[in-house]
Every structure is written in structure tokens, then in C-alpha cells.
Design goal:
alpha/beta, Rossmann fold, 6-stranded parallel sheet
């Protein structure tokens, strides 16, 4: 029986992935590394690797740590300018609240997550949020979802995940969850063959959940 929906954050609730790309691109340019969109998608959104892997052999570990700090500061500055919720998300959350338990499961740093939602108004719909300070390995590893399952005291068969990226889908599947994918922006064109359904936007989520509960989308 479906009891909860675990939502990814970046690219699902809010449009932030292009900001993270920009902060990373500008920072890597300091050491002569050109980070293109396709490379970012492959490293970060598909494999779940650090873009600073591109700096290996160019600078030492201390310099990479300093670069990462500057990138995170740049990203935080971009977030402080304000990040709106994606269109159509809030009405869906409002419709689901009270019928299903809702939580956020993200690879975002906790401080960035707080900046993102300083003014979105979305967190009132969620029971809790799991960020990267709560587990050891980020997506595509299952740790984030395993942590959320423990916190909610639920089994994987009682939860559906909402993701937008290949690494997010891989994390959900590895944790035993069914997953609906809403690709957009940088994640369009990914391989989502393991998803129970690929949706056009958040407005399609309630109908997809009803289909899952009825067994129409059972795999």
C-alpha cells in the first residue's frame, strides 16, 4: 500500500541545476578547465561525480578543496537572489498533503537547501527533509533514500520517489523504491528505462500515483 512520496529537490521542486552549473563553470575556469553543459550533465546528473574530478592532475588536493569552497560560496550567492518553486508543484503538494506522507530526499548541501527554500513556501507541505549531512554517500547510491525510509519507518514498497535525473532514479531503484521521473532542462534526454513512468510535469503526478496504487504501472 502506498503511504508516502519522497521528492527530490533540485530540478523537481525548484529550478536550480543551471545555477549549480554556472557556479561550477566559473570556478573551474580559474584553473583553465572549461566545463560544458554536456560534461556537467554526464558527471553530475548521470554519474553523481564531482565536477572537480576534472581538476585532478592540475592542482593538489588543498587547491581543489579551496575551489570547492569558492564554488559553494558562488552558488549560495546565486541562491540568495531567490529561487521560485517550479510551476505546478505547489498545487500538487497541497492536493497530496493529508492523503500521503511527503518528504524531501536530496543530495543538496543542507545550507544550500535552506537558502533555496527561504522563500518558496514549500517546506510546510513536508514531514521532513533529508540532505547530504544525513548520510554518507550521495545519489546514485541508495543511502539518501535508505535514510529517509528509516526516518519515516516505512518499507520501500510503501513509498514512491519523484526524480528528474539518472542518478536520482538509480538511487531510488537501488533502495527498492518505485520511481516517477520528471525530466526537465539539463536532464532531458536521459535514460529513464528503470522508471515506472516518465511524466511531462508535476501536474501528472497525482494521476500516476493513482495508477500505481491500482497496479496499472506495476513492474
Amino acid at each position: 500500500m502506498l503511504k508516502a512520496v519522497f521528492w527530490d529537490n533540485d530540478g523537481v521542486l525548484v529550478d536550480t541545476e543551471h545555477l549549480y552549473l554556472e557556479a561550477s563553470r566559473v570556478t573551474l575556469a580559474e584553473i583553465g578547465v572549461a566545463l560544458g553543459e554536456a560534461e556537467f550533465v554526464d558527471l553530475s546528473l548521470r554519474q553523481g561525480r564531482s565536477v572537480f574530478d576534472l581538476a585532478d592532475g592540475r592542482v593538489d588536493a588543498a587547491a581543489i578543496d579551496a575551489l570547492r569552497t569558492r564554488r559553494n560560496e558562488r552558488y549560495a550567492d546565486l541562491l540568495r537572489a531567490g529561487v521560485p518553486a517550479l510551476a505546478g508543484v505547489e498545487p500538487v503538494l497541497a492536493a497530496l498533503r493529508g492523503h500521503l506522507r511527503l518528504a524531501v530526499v536530496t543530495s543538496a548541501a543542507h545550507e544550500h537547501f535552506e537558502l533555496i527554500h527561504a522563500h518558496t513556501g514549500l517546506l510546510r507541505y513536508f514531514e521532513f527533509a533529508v540532505t547530504n549531512r544525513d548520510y554518507a554517500r550521495s545519489k546514485p547510491h541508495p543511502d539518501a533514500y535508505a535514510t529517509a525510509l528509516r526516518r519515516a519507518d516505512l518499507g520501500p514498497d510503501e513509498v514512491v520517489a519523484i526524480e528528474d535525473s539518472e542518478r536520482g532514479l538509480a538511487a531510488a531503484v537501488a533502495a527498492g523504491l518505485r520511481c516517477l521521473v520528471i525530466p526537465r532542462g539539463l536532464t532531458r534526454g536521459g535514460d529513464f528505462g528503470a522508471a515506472h513512468a516518465v511524466l511531462d510535469d508535476a501536474s501528472a503526478v497525482p494521476q500516476a500515483l493513482r495508477a500505481l496504487q491500482a497496479g496499472v504501472l506495476a513492474r
